[in-house]
Amino acid sequence: MSVFSEYKDCIAEGDLVLVWISRDNIKPIKVDSNEVFNTRYGSFPHEMMIGKPYGSQIAIRTKGTNKFAFIHVLQPTPELWTLSLPHRTQIVYTPDSSYIMERLNCSPRTRAVEAGTGSGSFSHAFARTVGHLYSYEFHQPRYEEALREFKEHGLVDIDKNVTITHRDVCRDGFRIRNGDVTSHLFGENETEVAVGADVVFLDLPAPWDAIPHLEDVISKDEKVGLCCFSPCIEQVDKTIEVLNRYGWSDLQMVEIQGKQFESRRQMVRTLDDAIERLRDVKRRKNEGLERRKRMCDSLLNDQPEADETVEKRPITEKTKFNPFGKGARVKEGDANYKWKQVTKVEPEIKSHTSYLTFAFKVANQIRNEEAIQRILESSESK
Ligand SMILES: C[S@@+](CC[C@H](N)C(=O)[O-])C[C@H]1O[C@@H](n2cnc3c(N)ncnc32)[C@H](O)[C@@H]1O
Question: EC number(s) on record (predicted)?
Answer without folding.
Answer: 2.1.1.220
